[in-house]
Write a structure and sequence with these properties.
It is a single chain. α3 runs antiparallel to α5. The longest helix has 34 residues. This protein has eleven helices and no strands. The protein is globular. By secondary structure, it is an all-alpha fold.
Length: 266
């Protein structure tokens, strides 16, 4: 979806009335799925401080090595173009020590000033790293403290969204208080329900939830194409809710199918 969005923008924004550009919402799906997977896989480590090292190493190894490889490659290409053509292609971030270091660490960039990492699309990974860190606090503490941390986090997200605070001049706070972060929590909630065996295990209901998610996604997609004619832009609701229902519906069906197989075996 994201690939199609970039292709639509690069080839012709008006192609298919820009329908594929809305594929950028795949990022919303990615955040919800990330929240689900991280919580589902690592909740067993909660309260086990000695497992933090393993959790952190696994998270960092999955992100940084391949990202660094691409970043070095892109920087090399930029240097070659500067040397042989007199003009580079990176103009969205200063290639000084600070800019390069921030890009390599995935430290949030100054979006208000149209600043992006050396690999522009890596901006979404800054959100991912922040979520990894916050979930790491869950491993260090317990569920009640983690819920308190998330509640405070979501409070600042809401204050920022309703413009009761202004963090636009602070890249880290701006990313931390972005409404997109709500989508990680959607995934965590679905994972918690799955782990607690509270997912609805009814095939008809599972299909209904899945179809509802698909219909709401289509509605939000059309609304975006019509320049928010029907309701205002808020990705964490417009796309976050449909994708959450789709993921929940699929898990519900998978749980139902697994239980059916077990029953048939007996």
């Amino acid at each position: 979806m994201v690939l199609m969005a970039h292709a639509n923008l690069m080839i012709d924004e008006k192609m298919f009335s820009g329908a594929f550009i809305i594929g950028w919402s795949g990022v919303d799906f990615f955040f919800i799925l990330s929240g689900f997977i991280i919580y589902y896989i690592n909740s067993k480590y909660v309260g086990k401080i000695y497992e933090l090292k393993q959790y952190v190493s696994k998270r960092l190894i999955r992100v940084y090595p391949i990202y660094w490889l691409y970043t070095i490659g892109f920087l090399t290409l930029n240097c070659l173009l500067l040397k042989f053509m007199g003009k580079g292609i990176i103009n969205w971030i200063s290639l000084d020590i600070s800019g390069i270091l921030r890009s390599f660490l995935l430290y949030p960039t100054h979006v208000a000033k149209s600043e992006m990492p050396i690999i522009p699309v890596a901006g979404t990974l800054s959100f991912e790293i922040i979520f990894y860190i916050i979930f790491g606090l869950y491993i260090l503490t317990n569920k009640k403290i983690f819920q308190l941390i998330v509640a405070i986090w979501m409070l600042f997200v809401a204050l920022n969204y309703f413009k009761l605070i202004d963090v636009t001049q602070f890249p880290l706070l701006s990313t931390l208080c972005n409404a997109k972060n709500i989508e990680f929590i959607y995934g965590c909630v679905i994972a918690e329900l799955t782990l607690k065996n509270k997912i609805i295990k009814n095939r008809s209901i599972g299909i209904s939830i899945l179809l509802t998610g698909i219909i709401l996604l289509a509605v939000s997609w059309i609304n975006e194409m019509d320049h928010f004619r029907y309701f205002p832009k808020m990705d964490s609701l417009n796309f976050g809710i449909p994708y959450s229902l789709i993921i929940y519906g699929l898990i519900s069906l998978e749980t139902y199918n697994s239980n059916s197989k077990i029953n048939r075996n007996f």
